[in-house]
Structure formats: structure tokens, C-alpha cells
Amino acid sequence: MQEDTDRQAAIRRFLGRPEIGRAHVPAASLAWYDAALTHRSYAHEQGDSGQYPDNERLEFLGDRVLNLVVAEILFRGSGDPEGILSARMEFARNQNLAAMIATAGIGFTDMIRVGCRQEKTPGIIAGALEAFIAALYLDAGLESAKNMVYSLFSDDILNYSTEKNYKKELQEYLQKREMPLPVYELVERDGDDHAPVFSYVVAVGDIPLGRGRGKNKGEATQEAARAALKQVKKSGGPP
After folding, report:
1. Active site residue: 34, 54, 59, 130, which one?
2. pLDDT tens, N- to C-terminus, the chain (239 residues)
3. Is there a catalytic annotation at residue 188?
4. Distance between CA 148 and CA 129 in Å, rounded?
5. Residue 130 a catalytic site member
6. Could you write out the three-class secondary structure of 77-94?
7. CB burial class (10 A; 0-12, 13-18, 19+) of residue 205?
8. Beta strand pairing status for 183-192 and 195-204?
């Protein structure tokens, strides 16, 4: 069917992004990616034919792979003792993952298929991301899965604080008010090559809510979320 052909082409284009780096994917592996990006609500709508498997089994595997990579990033990039490292593993929880993949700006959420009445909740987005990591692991091995996580999230992981996570707080604030997930966009990079400064804007729909600057993506997006929280709480909610 043309719909399936278009879907496969869209997945191949997505996999070819530099953050993922899978330009040539065998057909068998493509099926893993398709399943990873398919929520059970969509699969159930298609009936019992099994033509559209969902991502729950892949999510189980991807959760373990992701936790391993996050632990390695924290171990190599931080001198914190074991207790603090364990607390910072909270990064891999659903709310945080959904916020961070929105920060990445690669259109991941758009690739997820859900049922016609199913909202793409943070849990669904995080589950799809874990399943996608599993598909990448099965297709290309642990090193490729690690490279993707490092490319997309290493700044966020190393700057993650269990004490005050503005991106998580902003997402929860908007979710309680049934607003769309916030989207972060890089709007400027200046400074010297050895000491760049990044500027990000966070928006809901077409409405910018806050802007932040920092020495890396994680710091700048946290500052943007902090500014957005201040704005929405002052005004009583998004405009």
C-alpha cells in the first residue's frame, strides 16, 4: 500500500539524520524501527492481523540500554559519589525523556503513530524513544545506540540536577493545563569556538514563552524553561 511505502520512506529519512547516522538500513531492521514508533493504540485500531506490532517489547529492551548509556555518561563525565550518581539516573524517567527529546528538535514526536483518539503523552513519547533505542541497538549494535544518546542528550545528562529541573517543571505545569508539550529551538550561537554561548527559545505552539543562554544546550534550555515558568506563573498561564 502507498501509505506503508510512504511510512518506510519517512523512517529512512529520519534514520539518515546525522544524530542517528543510519543511511542504509536492511528491510528487516526497518520493521524494528516501525514497531518502535507504533503505540499499541494504533496497532489495536488496525485489528488482530498483527500487521502493525506495537513497541512494548522493544521498550523493555531500550529501557535497559538507555540506563546503561546514561550511567556511563554520568560515570565518565562527573566525579560525583555513587549516591548522587544514582539520584541523577532519574534523568531516564518518562517526564524527563519526553522533555529532552523535545529539546533535541529532530521531529521525533511527529514520527510516533498513535490511535486517532490517543494523545501523545510524555509516557508514550518516552516509551517510543526507549523502543527506538532498542531498535537501533538491534540493527547496528551498542556503539550506534550510545552515539545517538551521546549526540542528543550528553549535555542534558551532565547538567541534570535532581534539585531543580526547570524543563521537567515547565512540562508538568503545561500538561496539567492540557497544553501542548514545549518545543526548544536554537536561535543563536556566538562566542569563540573554544567557549561558545548558545541561545534557545522555548515555545508552545507558535507562542514563545522564554529565552535562555548557556555554555551548552543543557544549560541554555534549562534557562529558557526557567524564564518560561516565570512568565506563565506571573500571567496565570500561557497566553
Report:
1. 130
2. 677 889 999 999 999 999 999 988 998 899 999 999 999 999 988 876 557 789 999 999 999 999 999 999 999 998 888 988 888 898 888 888 988 898 788 999 999 999 999 999 989 999 999 999 999 999 999 999 999 999 999 988 988 877 677 888 888 888 888 888 888 988 998 888 778 899 999 998 888 999 999 888 888 888 898 899 988 887 766 55
3. no
4. 11
5. yes
6. HCCCCHHHHHHHHHHHCH
7. exposed
8. antiparallel
Of the candidates 195, 201, 198, 200, the one whose C-alpha atom is nearest the C-alpha of residue 216 is 198
pTM above 0.85, yes or no: no
Per CATH, the number for 166-235 is 3.30.160.20
Distance in angstroms (rounded) separating the CA atoms of residues 162 and 23: 37
Which candidate in 34, 54, 59, 63 is catalytic? 63
Specify the amino acid at residue 190: D
**What residue spans define the domains of the chain?**
2-158, 166-235
Report the CATH number of the 2-158 domain: 1.10.1520.10
As a whole number of angstroms, the distance between CA 87 and CA 164 comes to 13
Contact criterion met (CB below 8 Å) for 72 and 158: no
Give burial (CB, 10 Å; 0-12/13-18/19+) of 17. Answer: middle
